[in-house]
Amino acid sequence: MKKYLVIALAICASIAVAQEKKIDFRSADIKLLTKQQLREYVRWREDQFRMMKSAGLQSEVKSLVIQGNKIRSIIYNTGAISNPGVTGNVLDLVWNNLGYGYEFGPLVAARVPKAATPGDSVNFVIDGFGGASRSIADGDFAPDGVTKWGWLPKAGYSAPGQNDIASWGARTSDLRLRPKSWPENWYNSIVGEYIYPSFLGGNSSVPDEEVYYVVDDSSDAEFDYYPFVSNQTRRGLGLNLEVRTFQFANPLAEDI
């Protein structure tokens, strides 16, 4: 009887230890989490959002040619899909070598009170067009013609010293080695390899192509509006934007 009791206690202790083991949410499959683990995951995500308080940088603007299915296009980590005149229309959202989609990008508009005269308001539009190469095709610029207004990428979502946005398609066959465009902070010391921060979590639930980065609008000083009273160097509407681009090779989605 004592042997059975000891075995039962040992099993219970093992279960308790397993339940208390800290989960690495960068690689966890959220579909398999318990309610308690999901609550912890939400708290972890909130911590990640707090880390996004750094400002977007014009020096971080990068591009990538993606073709995870029948669509081939150049994209930018400003939110822009294609960029007119950059590649002679051969990478502007091309489907089966036919035509092109010109340019797409995220737009956010709001009516906000003016700082100097709060009784008045101004219509504020943030765009992510272009690659910040100082041309009128690249969206809004400050009067100096150099400072890009609009969405700009935050550091830490691709490796420094190279020109590609980090993508799932850049992975290597051995993820113990860092893919060239992936940042060092994607290394998971628990599993001993680099983990892509995919939408569904981990390296096993990624579509045929996925691109992820974060932008903000803090450089946009076009209008008399200050979203953060305590920090008037941060302009725009005070927004962060998490961007994910997906491509699926499945016949049902290969033309999207």
How do you describe this structure in short?
This protein is of the alpha+beta class and 256 residues long. The protein has helices at residues 2-20, 35-51; strands spanning 63-66, 71-76, 94-95, 107-113, 121-127, 152-153, 187-188, 193-194, 209-216, 240-247.
What does this structure look like?
This protein is of the alpha+beta class and 256 residues long. It has one domain (55-253). Helices cover 14% and strands 19% of the residues. The chain has helices spanning 2-20, 35-51; strands spanning 63-66, 71-76, 94-95, 107-113, 121-127, 152-153, 187-188, 193-194, 209-216, 240-247. The strands form four sheets. Strands 1-2-3 form a three-stranded antiparallel β-sheet, with no helix packed on it. It has a three-stranded antiparallel β-sheet with strand order 6-9-10, with no helix packed on it. A two-stranded antiparallel sheet has the order 4-5. Strand 1 (63-66) and strand 2 (71-76) form a beta hairpin. It is globular, with a radius of gyration of 23 Å. The N and C termini lie far apart (65 Å). 27% of the residues are buried. Mean pLDDT is 81; it is low at 4-21.
